[in-house]
Design goal:
Elements lengths: L1 E6 L8 H11 L5 E6 L2 E4 L3 H5 L8 E7 L3 H13 L12
Antiparallel strand pairs: 1-4, 2-3, 2-4
Helix pairs in contact: 1-3
């Protein structure tokens, strides 16, 4: 199991379009991926659960991945978040 803490820096936080890109990226991987904000946890592959975390700009989140491609999944999600949701995996249709 791998864990990573990131800060959401984009203006809209993890809502609507960013959440959609985040979930579609997470779904590319076989590993189970969980997002935690404070005491709340959500399956990173379920958009409504991710949106209900109410992640805003400058909020820290922790990603936990477990499975055969956990490192690649976290690296891809890190790139997405750190780019302000502009560096999208080419396998994700926009």
């Amino acid at each position: 199991m791998k864990e990573l803490t990131l800060t959401i820096t984009n203006e809209t936080g993890l809502h609507s379009r960013p959440a959609d890109l985040f979930v579609r990226t997470a779904k590319l991987y076989e590993s189970s991926i969980e997002v935690t904000k404070g005491e709340k946890k959500a399956n990173a592959k379920t958009i409504i659960k991710v949106i209900l975390l109410n992640v805003c700009q400058n909020d820290p989140i922790t990603l936990t991945a477990e499975g055969p491609d956990e490192e690649a999944a976290l690296a891809d999600l890190r790139g997405l978040v750190e780019s302000g949701f502009t560096k999208v995996n080419p396998r994700v249709e926009i």
